[in-house]
Specification:
about 400 residues, alpha/beta, Rossmann fold, formyl-coa transferase, domain 3, about 40% helix, about 15% strand, elongated
Length: about 400
């Protein structure tokens, strides 16, 4: 098999929980040699964070975020272990950490320190609010970022208690944005010869994904409010109720709207000025859905979906996750992988969300046991002359 695009790139993953580990897993999936550096005894806190297990001690959450990595346990407060990290830095291309701002400097593993050891190092810090600004020292989790970015205020349904997005959009978004920045910096390094520092945050990831919401704010002068499953820029584009339950529709442009009302047998709406343009339909979205509701109740979900799809109008059932991961499309696209593991035997994990024809990805390494690769990694450093052999160190 051809080398994956990031083969030969070494990544040091000094992060825990979600954003950093997700970022590093994405790099590992593309072929990078990811070395996960964990605290001795406890390891990544996600190893023990979920209320259920499969067979072993590591939680399913840890298993889901740490494939294609090797593990070494280092106490970064210990001088000898920190020297091992410094040796790893000499051979590394990328380092990712997600401690609260200031912690890395106190440990002597901040960018300014490590860049003196390896000027080509691309160093990414992921925190709740970034390294600067009045909120920099606040603790940050996905829920906090969703609350302080505006997401929580605009999610859910009007008049109900605040509802966070069930997907950890701030955490995962920060991981994705960081991976994008890291790859950009690695490419830029080939021109400049220098690495650089990347400062990413959950708050900015959440804001960065709020494209429609901020557009509505600046376009209307009013902060967006919850609109359930509807869309802020198109209508009708939401969940609707058929005679036997809910499904979703997406008549998101004028051509689709005209086809949509033909399928519904409601062509008289074409001449109603409240619905004649997309802008008018968005303005009158609630009235439009109330107008259409009795029509949808005349047929089943399957009947409506079949009729709309046959006409080229987007429509879909609302699947739960059990249905989604076993759907014929998810199966055809290999979105569930059976991952071998020395303790679990095999476990299910999400597959690769992007396919590459020339260099297809694979699970080369299962999520590591804590400190599983310590001896191998240390020997690699000794062989490269980056770390003294134990007997040499003792002299």
């Amino acid at each position: 098999m051809a080398n994956l695009p990031l083969a030969g790139i070494r990544v040091l993953d000094i992060s825990q929980v979600m954003a950093g580990p997700f970022c590093c897993m994405l790099l590992g999936d593309m072929g990078a040699d990811v070395i996960k550096i964990e605290p001795p005894k406890t390891g990544d806190s996600t190893r023990h964070s979920m209320g259920f297990r499969l067979k072993g001690e590591d939680s399913p959450g840890f298993l889901a975020l740490n494939r294609n990595k090797r593990s070494i346990a280092l106490n970064l407060k210990d001088d000898a272990d920190r020297e091992v990290l410094y040796a790893l830095v000499k051979s590394a291309d990328v380092l990712v950490e997600n401690a609260r701002p200031g912690v890395a400097a106190r440990l002597g593993i901040d960018y300014d320190t490590l860049a003196k050891i390896n000027p080509r190092l691309v160093y990414a810090s992921i925190s709740g609010f970034g390294q600067t600004g009045p909120w920099a020292q606040r603790p940050g989790f996905d829920l906090i970022a969703q609350a302080m970015s505006g997401i929580l205020s605009s999610n859910g349904f009007p008049g109900m208690e605040p509802a966070k997005n069930s997907i950890a959009v701030a955490d995962l978004g920060a991981g994705l944005f960081s991976a994008y920045a890291i790859l950009s910096a690695v490419i830029g390094r080939e021109k400049s010869g220098q690495g650089q520092y990347i400062d990413a945050s959950l708050l900015e990831a959440a804001l960065g994904l709020s494209i429609w919401e901020t557009t509505e704010l600046w376009g209307t002068g009013k902060s967006p409010t919850p609109i359930g499953s509807a869309n802020r820029m198109s209508a009708p584009y939401q969940a609707v109720q058929a005679s036997d339950g809910w499904f979703v529709i997406g008549a998101a442009n004028q051509g689709l709207w005209l086809t949509f009302i033909q399928v519904l047998g409601r062509t008289e709406l074409q001449d109603d000025p409240r619905y004649s343009t997309n802008a008018a339909r968005v303005t009158n979205r609630i009235a439009l859905i109330e107008e259409l509701a009795p029509t949808f109740l005349t047929r089943t979900r399957e009947e409506w979906i079949d009729a709309l799809l046959a006409a080229g109008v987007p429509a879909a059932p609302i699947l739960d996750y059990g249905e989604a991961v076993t759907s014929e499309q998810a199966v055809a696209r290999d979105m569930v992988q059976m991952v071998p593991h020395p303790v679990e035997g095999e476990f299910k994990a999400l597959g690769f969300p992007v396919k590459m024809r020339g260099t297809p990805q694979e699970v080369r390494l299962p999520p590591p046991l804590l400190n599983e690769h310590s001896d191998l990694i240390r020997q690699e450093l000794i062989d490269k002359g980056l770390l003294a052999a134990p007997q040499e160190a003792a002299q």
